Amino acid sequence: MAPGHGRRVASRGGHMMAWNKESGVGRRSIRAILVGAILVALAWAPVAQAADPIKIGFGMALTGALAGNGKAALMAMQMWAEDQNKKGGLLGRPVELVYYDDQTKPAVVPGIYTKLLDVDKVNFIVSGYGSNVIAPLMPIAMERNLVLMGLFGMANNEKTNYKSYFQIMPSGPQPALGWSQGFFEVASKQSPKPQTIALVGADAEYPHNALAGAREHVKNYGLKIVYDGKYPPSTVDYTPIVRAIKATNPDLVYVASYPPDTAGIIQAVHEVGLPAKMFGGGMVGLQFAALQTKLGSKLNGVVNYEFYVPEPTLKFAGINEFLARYQAQAEKAGVDPLGHYIPPFAYAYVQVLGLAVEATKSLDQRKVAEYIQTHEFETIVGKVKFAPNGEWSKSRVLMVQFQNVQGNDIAQFKKPGTRVLLYPEDWKSGTLIYPYSKAQK
Length: 441
Known about the structure:
The protein has about 450 residues and is α/β, with parallel strands linked by helices. It folds into two domains: about 55-170 and about 315-385, 3-Layer(aba) Sandwich (Rossmann fold); about 175-315 and about 395-440, Response regulator (Rossmann fold, 3-Layer(aba) Sandwich), CATH 3.40.50. Helices cover about 40% and strands about 15% of the residues. It is built from 14 helices and 14 strands. The protein has helices at about 25-50, 65-85, 110-120, 130-135, 140-145, 175-190, 205-220, 240-245, 260-270, 290-295, 320-335, 345-360, 365-375, 435-440, and strands at about 55-60, 95-100, 125-130, 150, 165, 195-200, 225-230, 250-255, 280-285, 305, 375-380, 380-385, 400, 420-425. The strands form three sheets. It has a seven-stranded mixed beta sheet with strand order 7-6-8-9-10-13-14, sandwiched between helices. α2 (about 65-85) packs parallel to α12 (about 345-360) and α12 (about 345-360) crosses α13 (about 365-375). It starts with about 25 loop residues before the first helix and ends with a helix.
């Protein structure tokens, strides 16, 4: 299947001059003009060569199921390229992003990257969004010994342990454990201490990984599992699932779900009622404005993972300026209007690559990879340092609780106070409302 369209070429200045051999100019003058032109061309050749762009190539979901996320990521990456080019590019050369639509189809990924490398001759590659499109890219990067920056992959390097792979999602060196660590840490500090837990998730890759990590935490924290279930991704009615969970009367309910089921489960919880003390954990979708505004006050009390929230304790250099620019463009571009989840990290993963190129003053894959392996980076999402397996050296998955949500106005989610930061302790911005039912009043 041929790669999709969507290539972006950086604009570069230049002039073209023509002359007419019938203009009556003498042979001597013509020779002089030709010699002069050759000398000028030779003199400018190094400058022209130096101005050749540094190309970064990738596939991105611009259509298909993950197009919303892919378009938001692309916009953030374009913002980084614009910022970098305003500062003179990389190594004095402009940055050019070369990209194609991967249509949210892993099967087209090998063809896209083969074309990027063999036809477009890109200098570096980065991944598209998500584990499913990173997986088929790993063998290509490994075969050619390329640096590979990954965008939100879950444990893609667990088996291969490729030394030149670096993943920007802050789930830590053991992603499945780091993903839910905060949920169990917060729960363990409550009084009375919770004793039982229900685990539930879709029968798909992400929930499998997230729930496997949660089960390890269950053992470590001495909890008893009273419900451990999965449901088909095609499920529409979640009421029977919530009723079954309610019947076991768990203290904690940990859910690993995708956006459609996240919305369905929360709706069902409000229909059926759930006397759990803590509810949430690994629900994908609550990070986006679409679900936040759809569910509104029904979110109150839910404890869930995040990567960035606009709380006063979470300040990184450049993040506010980035979000202001992103949000000003988002509505017109038809992407998530908040931009708290994927866009800052999409900016940061190319930012890390750029910082490594500048520091090494090189395009050599090995040198750049070694620099990324051994250094910490200041980015718009804070300090980033990678473990030997290419994941963050320390998990920074946040755990927040929705509080004070009123109605469906999006503006409230742009301000502090609706997603109170509970974990890590160093960035805590508020206190858990416990139990869950108390937060809903």
